[in-house]
Amino acid sequence: MTEQVDHASMTPPQRPQSPHDPDVPVNHYGIDRRRSDSRSAYGAGDGVGAVAVLVAVLSGVVVLLLSSSGLLPSFGTGVVEHENERHGDGGFGTGSVTSSPVTIAEPTTDGYPAPEHALEESGRPHGTTKSGESERDTSGKSPRPVTSLGAHPFNIPGNGAIDTECDLPDFDTDTAAQRAFLRSLTPCLMAMWTPALREANLPVETPDVVVTRGDVHSPCGDRSWRRTAMYCGGNHTIYWTARHYYRIEGRETAGPYLGQFAHEFGHSLQGMTGISEAYGTAVEEAGGTETAEGLELSRRNELQATCYGGQALAALQHGGVDNDHIMSALRDASNRGDQAGEVRNHGSTAHNRLWAHRGFRTNRITECNTWSAADSEVS
């Protein structure tokens, strides 16, 4: 059943835009993080030093065996050198997470109902309320990705993106200004999604963000600056091709950049949760993205990221971000999709609009479960 959208008070849509290029499926969201701490002990001739060294070596072997067997978690961090820039964690952290009390939804300025708040029916906010605090882990297990699609632990009823304030700098289209804008936006997106990740006992790992005016070189392959941004699960990094959006698409205001980055961040959520790994496995079993089944999997993957992006816009709107930015971002997301004659790997424009608005209006993770959606909603 197609969801009806009231466009009465919205700016007429622009020419439909090509979607971002599909990310390369990978079977692991990140790379092993190993720290080599070598210690030496020297005794006074009684052999204690030699014993300590032997113990250290044996301990290292045990750790490596556990890691290689999958018994230790691995995360995508590391440092990416690109255009003389050092991109580690970029100083990003999870900012203050604030849950709004339960209120009656007021209409937004464009005529859409305000999204519901990410609370359980009881009104209890999910997750943490202070940066860096972890909710008590009732499972007794450390957070690990879960390689599953439709039936995934991230889909906790009532959970969504927490309303989050975000102090964004003035926007401009030059690469430096885009970089400043996206680096200010990243911790806000982490803050809004951290409670839901912790509620589901899933890893919380800020993606690296590389903003470049040149070509992209990544573990997921090379990419021309003329192509759209991408998320690479191989090193948990969002690569942003700055010149594409200004010179190829002609985008001059903050909204489209905000909306597209929220979509790419949706892919990083898929990486953290383990959905990306499950998707990659499913594509391999389907015979690749060129098969009919592989193309459908790609559309479900992309439309879920679009829906997560809509949720992020809802959380930012309620956090006080300029509503012109929010509505412009939503319009841009609603105008992307596969055009006539193109490979059908992102979903139609109508279905991109459907999932972007569904995420925005409901702000519920369960409403973005494209893997369980009817075929008619992901064509």
Notable traits:
379 residues, globular, two-stranded antiparallel ribbon, mainly alpha
Envelope shape = globular
- Give the overall average pLDDT: 75
β-strand amount: 5-15%
Cα-to-Cα separation, first versus last residue: 13 Å
What count of helical segments does DSSP give?
Answer: 8
Radius of gyration: 22 Å
Name the assembly state.
single chain
Largest sheet: spatial strand order: 3-7-6
* Topology order in helix (H) and strand (E) letters: HEEHEEEEEHHHHHH
Sheet bearing the most strands, described? Answer: 3 strands, mixed
The secondary-structure class comes to mainly alpha
- The number of strands is 7
Poorly predicted ranges: 1-15, 24-57, 59-138
Give the helix proportion (percent range): 25-40%
Write the topology of this structure.
Elements: H1 48-68, E1 80-82, E2 85-87, H2 175-199, E3 208-212, E4 216-218, E5 221-223, E6 230-232, E7 237-241, H3 242-248, H4 254-273, H5 275-286, H6 292-318, H7 323-334, H8 349-362
Parallel strand pairs: 3-7
Antiparallel strand pairs: 1-2, 4-5, 6-7
Helix pairs in contact: 2-4, 4-6, 4-7, 5-6, 6-7, 6-8, 7-8
Short note summarizing the structure:
It is built from eight helices and seven strands; from the N terminus they run H-E-E-H-E-E-E-E-E-H-H-H-H-H-H. By secondary structure, the protein is mainly α.
